[in-house]
Amino acid sequence: MQSNNAVINTTENSQSDKFLVTLSCKPSAPVTENLASSNTNEGALGVSSVTLDANNYNTDYAD
Rounded CA gap, 24 and 1, in Å? Predict the structure, then answer.
């Protein structure tokens, strides 16, 4: 799994950030990647996991 930004740094001014996730090759079965914040006091994710499959593996998933 590739991300354009594996680590997202937060600031104290309530800004948000986005990251893109894609697979580099077509999977033979769905691939689910669990996501988590290392410090939920500093930042929370809009989703807890991303699932990519043969239909969407090379389309940027953004949240």
Answer: 7
Phi, psi of 32 (to 5 degrees): -110, 130
- Any bridge partners for residue 34, and if so which? 49
The pTM (predicted TM-score) of the whole model is: 0.66
The pairs formed by 49-52 with CB atoms below 8 angstroms and a separation of 24 or more are: 50/21, 52/1, 52/21, 52/22, 52/23, 52/27
Q: What is the DSSP string of 1-63?
A: -EES-SS----SS------EEE-SS--SS-EEEE---S-TTT---S-SEEEE-TTTTTS-EE-
Q: What is the pLDDT of residues 2-60, one digit of tens each?
A: 444 555 555 667 777 777 778 889 999 999 988 888 778 877 788 888 898 999 888 87
